[in-house]
Amino acid sequence: MILIADSGSTKTSWRLIHDDNKTSEFRTSGINPFYQSAEDIQHELQQNLKPQTDIYEIEHVYFYGAGCHFEDKKQIVRSAMQSIFENSVIEINSDLLAVCRALFGKEKGIACILGTGSNSCFYNGREIKENVSPLGFILGDEGSGAVLGKRLVADVLKNQLSEGLKNKFLTQYNLTTAEILDRVYKQPFPNRFLAQFAAFLLENSHHKPVYNIIYKSFEDFFVRNVMQYDYKHHRVGFVGSIAYYFNDILSAAAMDLNINISTIEQSPMDGLQKYHTPKSPKGDFKTMRCEN
Fold it and tell me: What are phi and psi of 106, to 5 degrees?
């Protein structure tokens, strides 16, 4: 059996591929070695993943995760995984490589992530050859859920939205200014906290000031990231919940900049299954979902 993990800062999706090509899916909290120690990750796996599957039957584990671009960070995740999957061959790669393989397989393209965070690269069909550093939600991560949420909250607290929208936001999330500042500056995972507000942006995107927040953030993503690659001669594809749910505004921003988007997928998982099981019959992914 093969276990594939697609992990962002907010959640980790797991797909177990059985020998008969049937699949089971699980979900745990996000795993990111920039914010978590090996012990933290091991605890998460022990508590929320191990009870859901027979780990001793798993031959290969392919883990793709946010924060796994550097070898020292990969080692944190590898150490935690090896303590759980003692009999498995474990491969740790970045979430960006997951998107490359899912979108383009063994062909060239510009792969982009828009989820809680954002990232992009040029993929030559084998490996990532160019990467504009995303820099995180404070310095970069343009177009991400965290940056969209950051811009929304800043506009709310600085009275840049109408009184009606401001009150709607504060009432809907039952927040005060003091609570927001505490969550952003003092509590762990401020990126997750801010990213949750993408839902408010989506449901209120018909309001011009809200639309402008979304559009400008996507425009920044293209200008500061995608346009640094040879985007005129290669396909540009996206994976992630933000790209998927805001696809109309994302496509509008791309069109205005003469960028052609070839594909927008919510998740890389189907593409990863095809990549790691190339001999599996197409369309024969029978999945049972389990969530924690």
Answer: -115, 25
The pLDDT of residue 10 is: 73
What strands, in cross-sheet order, belong to the sheet with 128-130? Answer: 128-130, 118-123, 109-114, 236-239, 261-265
Domain residue limits, the chain: 2-100+269-289
Q: Supply the pTM of this predicted model.
A: 0.81
How far lies 226's CA from each of 20, 45, 61, 247, in Å? 40, 35, 31, 16
- Cross-strand partners of 123: 109, 128
Task: Tell me the C-alpha to C-alpha distance, in Å, between residue 203 and each of 86, 181, 198, 199, 238.
Answer: 45, 24, 9, 6, 22
Residues 174-209: tens digit of each pLDDT: 999 999 999 999 998 899 899 999 999 999 999 999
- CA distance linking residue 224 with residue 242, whole number of Å: 18
Which residues lie across from 239 on neighbouring strands?
A: 113, 265
Domain 2-100+269-289 classified CATH 1.10.3720.10? no
Q: What are phi and psi of 262, to 5 degrees?
A: -85, -35
Query: Taking the CA of residue 190 as centre, how many other CA atoms within 13 Å lie in the half-sphere pointing to its CB?
Result: 15
Closest C-alpha to 181, from 150, 136, 138, 160: 150
Which pLDDT belongs to residue 55? 72
